[in-house]
Amino acid sequence: MADTLPPLDDADVRRWRACVRRFWLHRHAGASATAAATTEPADSDVVQGPALPVALRASFPAGVTLSASQTQVDWTRAVERTHIALAQATPEAEGWALFGACLSSDDGARAWIDLITRGAHGWRLFKLRYATVGTEADVDAVALWAHVAARCGLRVQSVGLLLVDTGFIYPGHGCYAGLLREVDLGPTLGSRPVGTWLAAMQACARGAAPPVPPGAPCTQPHPCEQLPHCALPQASVRRTDARARLEVVGREMASQLRAAGHADLHSVPLEALPDARLRRATRAVQQDAPVLEPEAAAVLRALPYPRHFLRFETIGFAVPVWAGTRPYQVLPFQWSCDTVAAAGQPPQPLGFLAGPTGDPGRAFAQSLLQALGAEGAILAYNAGFERNRLRELAAQFEDMGPALLALAERIVDLFQIARAHYYHPAMAGSWSAKSVFAAIAPDLGAERFDCEGQGTPLEAFARSLQPGLPAAELQRLRAALHAHGQRQTAALRRLVALFEHRRESANPP
């Protein structure tokens, strides 16, 4: 009987569709027996923004939210409240919606539905995603929700996704009507035989542990949470030093080297590599020491003073908070700079961090122009990012346009210099600022963001914009952002000093 097993939800469907062994291991760990229905991982690359509740309320002013259920008792109560709310909804209730509806079906499934609204001919079910497109897992989830709703006797008129419309421009004053667009998934549900899936999943859960299916995504895009319990044969897991893996020289070259019998870079002859950059990286790995070619010093010593070591931080809210901006628009909110007036002089730290109110674009640009002046080299890492932000600001603020474009022309890209003349084994094939900073200045900690409860500068800044935030919390977040910027510019100075063969001093604590 289906009811002898804990109910299946869309997270179970996602696991089962990815790997039946992953699904079986999760079910036999007992996690499903007491936990509420789970949802997909959040879009980690999107900062939803502090205006999210306002935006939802603007689209559904009469919306009702059910609290998340954490235990089986909570779940049972949430199902009861869902049926009561649906029974009380009237066709005349404009802007009505039920968020977090909970339903259980008689065939062993349950659904925690993001959003239900009334239509002219039945109920409309939506999955809410702060993204521009949906995924196959989204379609699977909605198909399960529609199945459960139908088994509960609800007349389902339509099912779909609510996605962010990138053409929306926020006019301000909390007017978010038009931010979300509907995508009808009805035509795709025929390819999702949910009833058959549920029967197969229940049979799988009752049976013995299935083998790992060919092509199972054990580590992509992230390591499976069941990997430690999967008991994969040791031969299937290649254990090698990440710093010496063949992919350091690129995937295509790695395939050729692997076909030639090499397991890692330690056995690769330098003459087998086609260019100087790959030979430099391999030589660094084989001698377990960084390689720096003398040409880097000549390039940097030719740069004029004053020297400005510059880093930007930007954010792109799914739900825009500043009038005149669009969803996901890349908006600079912080710049950090160390200015060194002459060789041997101590750095002068400067910076800007947007406040909790108002679009910071103009203040960002004005303060930057004042700090950088009209002379000297501006040193940045992967500087196309800073150049593009300056060009965008120049287009936005025509009165400052020529001066901002002049700043962009003065930028020197340390990434290009490093890539042409340097490699450290600790970089493990990555040329990101985080990897390079961790390799050349591990004592600075410039590669990490130190702020309890906030994983990135973007999350900290988004948190700082929350209305009603206590003053002490706001001060803590802003202090962490300032300190992070100072560590980043200190790492840029350390990189240049390394390349010029001199000692760098006056780093931040």
Q: What can you see in these coordinates?
A:
The longest helix has 29 residues, at 471-499. This protein is 38% helix and 15% strand. It has helices spanning 10-18, 20-28, 31-34, 52-59, 72-88, 136-151, 194-206, 251-259, 276-287, 295-301, 361-372, 384-396, 401-409, 414-421, 433-440, 457-464, 471-499; strands spanning 64-65, 98-104, 110-119, 122-128, 156-164, 180-184, 291-292, 307-315, 331-340, 348-353, 377-380, 411-413, 422-423. It contains 17 helices and 13 strands. By secondary structure, it is α/β, with parallel strands linked by helices. It has three domains: 2-206, Alpha-Beta Complex (Lambda Exonuclease, Chain A); 245-287, no CATH class; 295-499, Nucleotidyltransferase, domain 5 (2-Layer Sandwich), CATH 3.30.420. Strand 2 (98-104) and strand 3 (110-119) form a beta hairpin. The strands form three sheets. Strands 1-2-3-4-5-6 form a six-stranded mixed beta sheet. A five-stranded mixed beta sheet has the order 10-9-8-11-12, with helices on both faces. It is globular, with a radius of gyration of 28 Å. Helix 1 crosses helix 2 (20-28), helix 12 packs antiparallel against helix 13 and helix 16 runs antiparallel to helix 17. InterPro entries: DUF2779.
